[in-house]
Target: Aconitate hydratase, mitochondrial
Amino acid sequence: MATYCLTVARLQLALGHGARRLHVSAAYRAKAQVSMSRFEPSSFVNYEKFQSNVDIVRKRLNRPLTLSEKIVYGHLDDPHNQEIDRGRTYLRLRPDRVAMQDATAQMAMLQFISSGLPRVAVPSTIHCDHLIEAQVGGVKDLARAKEVNEEVYNFLSSAGAKYGVGFWKPGSGIIHQIILENYAYPGVMLIGTDSHTPNGGGLGAICIGVGGADAVDVMAGIPWELKCPKVIGVKLTGTLSGWTSPKDVILKVAGILTVKGGTGAIVEYHGPGVDSISCTGMATICNMGAEIGATTSVFPYNHRMRTYLEKTGRGEIAALADEYSGLLVPDEGCEYDQVIELNLDELKPHINGPFTPDLAHPVSEVGAVAEKNGWPLEVKVGLIGSCTNSSYEDMGRAASVAKQALDKGLKCKAQFTVTPGSEQIRATIERDGYSKILGDVGGVVMANACGPCIGQWDRRDVKKGEKNTIVTSFNRNFTARNDANPATHAFVTSPEIVTAMAIAGTLNFNPETDYLTAPNGEKFKLEPPNGDELPAKDFDPGQDTYQHPPPDGLSVRVDVSPQSNRLQLLEPFDKWSGDDLEDLNVLIKVKGKCTTDHISAAGPWLKFRGHLDNISNNMLIGAVNSENDGINKIKNHLTGEYGGVPDVARHYKASGVSWVVVGDDNYGEGSSREHAALEPRHLGGRAIIVKSFARIHETNLKKQGVLPLTFNNPSDYDKIRPDDKISIKGLKTFAPGKPLSAVVKHSDGSEETLQLNHSFNETQIEWFKAGSALNRMKELQH
Model:
């Protein structure tokens, strides 16, 4: 058993107030030595209370429950009286814990500081993974990141110590891998300030990505609101084998559901095919559920999860999960809002892209499709790792492909990078020889961090604007996301297919049928990959990278310099005036896909995530202007001149002119970054009017006092002109379910009235009136 994993104190104490104790053997007690305090006893689910809540709700609804319903409803603040209607009512929930990555934790902790509360009310952790730029290799890149980001790391470390938040230092690994290894377990409800938090669903947990303001609510001990999710069932039959991997399940599902098909729903996998997928493979599938807009994804508890819990030092949790196993699987006869069936025996390896993660192709066909569409066939770089695919099994399968090439004298034709998901994975694959194989074939092992997956990549092999293809095992492939080059065609697939294509150097390579040529002229075919699900020798924890907060943080100082360009204390947003919003300018009418990457780019901008004014200089600089198809080029209707979006917004704000953004479908898809909502609010935005929203972004806008509104008739989008003035009417009688209206004044003197819908409930309307959810929280404290 790994020596670092569980604290004796955590195991001896109750699963929650009133739950029964666990026995801890003397042998285990002797082994639990390192970072003992990283686990808090209160972070356990009280299975008895969980069971009681589920029983109450099942009796009330008088029907069988899906697994996701059990876990969600099992965390209701008031299971006796909560109105429950999938897709309609808002649930008040009590999540078990909060996790924040360093890029979003800055703003979350700044907001928590603004709340005036002395300490977090639920177990919470900060994970340093986003601010490490991939340049030359793990050791040097990590050292450079520690130096460049010292101010931010010190802020997060001291804020964590003061307010009772655990701190995982830079180099510890990617937030979602750390959660899987340490904090996720069957039945837990966790919220994380990153859109790929659903990764924990691979361990039977409900893990949901949120904005920082939502995290502040939970850390403050306030019930957290979530619209009651619909449930999409994915029934798996057959068995995974050969070149087909868990990644292919979600690549196929993404092709079926598209980037918005899961919006407002939890995707629940079930069926006999589940047992052929490893626990970390299930996590991969849940992780990329973010790319279909799903609230989260989850798998039922099974022996694969039990084995993973035991291997990561949590055998006692596995024993309890076995005891409550009926609670951790769907009820027989439960009903889903939609059902998709996949036969794993028939599923073939897939690769999705470019520019969107739902453009699915079988690997056997992508070469021909690329030729037809003029996509570059040469693979310039293959990249494996990321929070989606950096498990021991992933690295083992990739290494098995690489070793076959090495045995024949071949190395990668493309550049090849390897990003371990955690310090534990890095240390273990180094010990077991995988790192050496991947290095020998041409790979460079990067830091245990997000790196190129989120644009933290100092790429130098192509010039900006140069058309090229990369193949990754990541989750997203939006335009310019990985390397800031809009001409890069990024494709996502499994680590083993990435490795094979990096060796072959081309998209037009199907390892199931095609041959490689060795230096001696011998033609050979790669055998299907194989890799152990978990290490035979247990995991090597590597370096200890966890800092537990002291019992009392009152004496800890958290300093933010007024001269800092990285951190800035927050000023409260202004309250609603009490009147309708009159004559708002249209800042920009956005054309087509507009993700949170378009609204608030990552990459080099990550360094400003703790400084609202500075990061607002990236607001909507990636969005396409419908007026001229330009990027970051809009007309200032006060001066008649064209300028960048943030510059025009700042000029409007300085001139006392408020504005709106008009957008297309699924506006704000992608990352959970709340900066995409904070920036418009900071620069004078009052409303975002679109055809439809992605879930997290819509909530983030509400939290910051911005009105997210949708056209009742989507074709009304076409009626808006760039020089219109828009007045939003009906705010004096603002109420749930009651539409607002937009009076649109055209420059030719004509005007028309459009109906605008919203999804605000009564609590959220109070946020709007107070100016933000944080303002409202402070009002309620007095």
